[in-house]
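Q: Sequence in, structure out?
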Amino acid sequence: MAFIDGIKEKAKKDLKTIVLPESEDERTIHAAAKVLEEGTARIILIGPEDTIKADAEKYGVDVAGAAIIDPEKCEKLGTYVDTLYELRKAKGMTPEKARETLLADRTTFGVMLVKLGEADGLVSGACHSTANTLRPALQILRTAPGAKLVSGFFVMDVPNCEFGDNGTFVFADCGLNQDPNPEELAAIGNDSANSFKALVGGDARVAFLSHSSKGSAKHALVDKVTAAVAAAHENYPDLVCDGELQLDAAIVPSVAASKAPESPVAGKANVLIFPNLDAGNIGYKLVQRLAKAEAYGPMLQGIAKPVNDLSRGCSWEDIVGVVAITAVQAQNA
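A: Exactly. Output:
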């Protein structure tokens, strides 16, 4: 069974409500219809009801099972305004500005539904930047208890692949933190291992990647990764991790036997931690495009409730998958 098929089966067992605020995007409408057809989540679409229904008819899909909330006509808008004002008044928020923000930004409106328990998670980013998704999530939901930072990961499902967990990996950070320091990199490794366990299942084996394996190169960039591994061992003693490791040493047993024979992770890593955002973003896109992998994300970890970003190059099928993953994250929460 493919990774996403297993996730969808989990999602069906305890239906959660997921907000899709980008109802102006055709991919979102197609995705909402497919989610409802498959029964993996309840859906809330944000926007004018007449427009959404007309668009669905134009695209030839059925979203009759979705709840549609038009911020302009929402009876609870006053409650949402009061809540946003109270959360942000120390930062200069006024009731007038709160109302203006909720009416102008559908993602903020959707995050408020999650905050107040009227939805379990949110998926956005098909036609907006990561910042547009992340900003209201951090302002309204805040970070999860104990989280050191918010980071982004992808679940990569590579066809016909014997590496990782039958071709399934978690890659991080591929969407958010540009140049994490060693302590942040260690935290990303721990959070990514937890995400692997929650979504993929089984034991996470974390490799901190570099252009060097076990001292084969000397450079400040290598030093950062080795310091991250030391921080991970100190701060997360139960985390199965190692580094610094080159990519081939991390996932290929024969290479691992030569480059890192004593490593508990080398040759069998299923969670790959990239040293910076350049490497992570390039790495996931190479695997997605050249290996024809399914790439689900960037999923966000470290936020109090599930909010997930999308690549602006995503397909409607990608959105369907991320909705199912978000629903399973809500189950685990």
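The chain has two domains: 3-142+303-332, 151-290.
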